[in-house]
Amino acid sequence: METVNIMMATYNGEKYLSEQLDSILSQSFQNFKIYISDDKSIDNTLEILLKYKKNYPDKIEIIDYEKKKGSAAKNFIYLFENVDEADYYMFCDQDDVWDNDKIKKLLDKIHSMEINN
User: Fold this and answer.
1) 26 neighbors 110 (Cβ within 8 angstroms)
2) What is the pLDDT of residue 70?
3) How far is CA 77 from the centre of its chain?
4) In this predicted structure, what is the pLDDT of residue 74?
């Protein structure tokens, strides 16, 4: 079965983070792993991330939260350079909320495009 890496860059996202993570974890397509890089948040973001990592150790990987990247773009680049290989990669912001079939719909669309092109 194909694999999906979901990359999330966080910074002071405590207000929205739990809702976003819950929406990803409840996806109809489940062969994914969430890779998160925090940019040295000063709110409770890291505590929330560590709680989710503890509860979902096979689904969530926190990448070097002690290193300041300096911007969302640099944080996403850092993630992309430090995640395991997968068939597909998806990016999300810390304040997104995903419909429960987002991954499946995206993969269906990608497969359709691959067949047609």
Assistant:
1) no
2) 76
3) 13
4) 87
What's the angle, vertex CA 62, arms to CA 56 and CA 67, rounded to 5? 165
CA-based R_g, the chain, Å: 14
User: How far, in Å, CA of 82 to CA of 32, rounded?
Assistant: 16
Nearest alpha-carbon partner for 91 in 73, 70, 105: 73
Q: What is the pTM of this model?
A: 0.92
Are 39 and 67 in contact by the 8 Å Cβ rule? The answer is no
> Which CATH number is associated with domain 4-116?
3.90.550.10
Supply the DSSP symbol for 68.
-
Residues 83, 53, 4, 7, CA torsion sign = negative
pLDDT band at 116 (very low <50, low <70, confident <90, very high): confident
Cα 71 to Cα 1, 26, 30, 31, distances in angstroms: 34, 29, 30, 29
